[in-house]
Amino acid sequence: MERKIELHESHPRYLSLLAREKLVTGFKRGIVASEGLIAHGRGECFDYLLGERTIQSSRDAINVASAALLLANYPIISINGNVTALCVDQICRLNRSLENSAVEINLFYYTKEREKLISEEFKKYGLTRLFGIDPNNLESIPELESNRRLVDRDGISKADVVFVPLEDGDRTIALKRLNKKVITVDLNPLSRTALTSDITIVDNIVRVIPQLIERVEFHRKHSSEADLNDLLESFDNLDGLKKALEVMKSKQVPLQ
Ligand code: ATP
């Protein structure tokens, strides 16, 4: 029998439970891999320590990420099953607001069926072209194993900036070797992805994307190219990771 859970906004874990529900639904529909559920659990643990909110250093990273995306000649947003289940609508909005970007799929646990389901999901939200699905258009990143090494000739291959939320370390390192500027969202400030990327946003993707869209729209209206370059130049990624870790370490057991 189909399980039916009622979520109430008054529940202290409401947003966290909502995200779980989206992932479980995505899993049942074949969009999320079983390993994706475990990866989400790892993220939740760090989110708990952050207080399930966007901390100042992550707000700064979001601001800088919006500058990097606006300055890019050809930014690509790389997506997977978890990203689709959690925020397909917001990713499509971000892509529209960037104007010169495109979306590319890359699955750690690849199946043709999952790729098709994700592609259909993006179509529902108005995306007309998803890169990474035409086998004739894929080429290999050297030194990376299996299907993870594939990138689209007209997508990531040509991109100067790649936004890879919820990515694994090997692929992030490989993208850096290709000289891409890499922006990521990762709740774990100690992951290889967090440490290797140029701009790491230590926050939950469901909170990040709406703020990123807001910043892109703000800077498009109010900032010059020089302002955006200044933002990028003054950014220190490792400092942001240290600040996120400090917030996590400062959690105390509440005293009676
Ligand atoms: P790495 O290979 O980079 O060292 P990893 O082995 O933890 O790290 P994965 O398991 O492939 O990498 O990636 C999952 C990462 O995504 C985890 O670091 C987890 O903290 C993060 N994550 C999971 N769910 C979310 C979410 N909703 N928002 C932001 N980050 C998330």
Can you give a write-up of this model?
By secondary structure, this protein is an alpha/beta fold. The chain contains 10 helices and 8 strands. The strands form 2 sheets. A 6-stranded parallel beta sheet has the order 3-2-1-6-7-8, with helices on both faces. Strands 4-5 form a two-stranded antiparallel sheet. β6, α6 and β7 form a beta-alpha-beta unit. α1 packs antiparallel against α2 and α3 packs antiparallel against α10. The radius of gyration is 18 Å and the shape is globular. The protein starts with 13 loop residues before the first helix and ends in a 7-residue tail after the last helix. The mean pLDDT is 94.
What is the share of helical residues?
40-55%
Shape category: globular
Q: What amount of the residues lies in strands?
A: 5-15%
Mean pLDDT metric: 94
Cofactors, ions and other ligands in the entry = adenosine-5'-triphosphate
The side-by-side strand order for the widest beta sheet comes to 3-2-1-6-7-8
Strand-pairing-aware structural class: alpha/beta
Low-confidence stretches: none
Number of helices: 10
> Helices and strands, in N-to-C order?
HHHEHEHEEEEHEHEHHH
Report how far apart the termini are: 44 Å
Multimeric status of the protein: single chain
What's the Cα radius of gyration? 18 Å
Compute the number of strand runs: 8
Major sheet attributes = 6 strands, parallel
